[in-house]
Specification:
5 strands, globular, Rhodanese-like domain-containing protein, GlpE_sulfurtransferase, Rhodanese-like_dom, Rhodanese-like_dom_sf
């Protein structure tokens, strides 16, 4: 793991190619509001989904307050399939420190629940 990134720094690079913002909250919480352009991979699904991050130049993990995302960033950084020069960071202060608007899931993105079916 390469440390933490501030919300301001993340906002400045959010639209760049190669930047992947991974929100580790449950899908229902993500659907209620998330950083625009982020993707939801709940913490419990990271071990099975980390393959999807191969090829990313920079991965930033996000949680409500910047604590669980540190563990998630360490997990992602330990994955051998990630490029050696990829930067893996946690969003300092999490969503609580995000200065911009949060995006809510649209109705065509499916139900905003954590139900398994």
């Amino acid at each position: 793991m390469d440390g933490e990134v501030s919300a301001e720094e993340l906002a400045a690079v959010l639209d760049e190619d190669g930047v992947r913002v991974v929100d580790i909250r449950r899908r229902g919480a993500y659907a209620q509001g998330h950083i625009p352009g982020s993707e939801c991979i709940p913490f419990g699904e990271l071990p099975q989904s980390v393959d999807d991050l191969a090829g990313a130049e920079r991965v930033v993990t996000v949680c409500p307050h910047g604590e669980s995302s540190v563990r998630a960033a360490r997990l992602v950084a330990s994955y051998e399939g990630l490029d050696d020069d990829a930067t893996v960071e946690s969003l300092a202060e999490g969503l609580a420190g995000w200065p911009g608007d949060l995006e809510a899931a649209s109705s065509d993105e499916g139900p905003a629940t954590d139900a398994p079916f």
